[in-house]
User: What shape does this take?
Amino acid sequence: MVVKTEPNVAACSSRDQAVTVEARDLVKRFNDISAVAGISVSIRRGEIFALLGPNGAGKTTTIQMLTTQLKPTSGVVRIDGFDPQRQPDEVRKRIGIVFQEPTLDTELTAYENLDLHGQLHCMARRVRTARIFALLEVFELWDRRDTLVNRFSGGMKRRLEIARGLLHRPRILFLDEPTLGLDPQTRNLFWTKVGELNRLDGTTIFLTTHVIDEAERVADRVAIIDHGRIVADDTPQALRRRTGTDSLERAFLMLTGTTVCDETEPQCSDYVARAGRG
Assistant: This one.
């Protein structure tokens, strides 16, 4: 597992400090319910940023607005300088996404899934073939390249999904609960590979996870969202100091409370987002 023991100020100083993800006063309402209630975040190029929150807090809704899937009610979003609503194609060229739910075509092989994705991004055959070969090696799937995905384990599918998300060399990779259901060994491999790509390519990582110790180990910075609002935004170390706790999980509980949100209740904002999509 990639471990970041210090805030990444020194590490980031050698990188382009340009802001690559910016949201200002971002709001999403479904009827009279505010799923996201005016959040603002700014993420530097090459940063690993974690958005944490209880079930229904607004994490997935936020990602959907940042990645052109959902139109904000109000506020400003810029992804690598582009507006997701007015310039969606430019944004999609620059981002990769690993969704909560599997989106691979299980009737295609690993290679075919990647090749199809490359064609959709208009990658030249020679370029995409070289990139596919490289990513299959990186994610330890080369020997299974011609295997149908319906024969893959959950961990193999997740590795293939992140390889697909990185195929077109996105500047920003969005990971929405990427290790959900994975065993500890597979989670460790997953984050090791993500960390290597972040360091080597300078890819900005925007992730959500309920495995808070993952965020503590891999993230340069953590924002905590609760009831559609950002209640804290700092390094894991600073959040622990601020709350007088010895772990990010304890800091998280101090900042959000311990009451479990019933996702069938309308105040749970990601439930509202799903209901709003019909």
Q: What stands out?
A: Strands lie at 19-30, 33-44, 48-52, 74-79, 95-98, 172-176, 204-208, 221-226, 229-234.
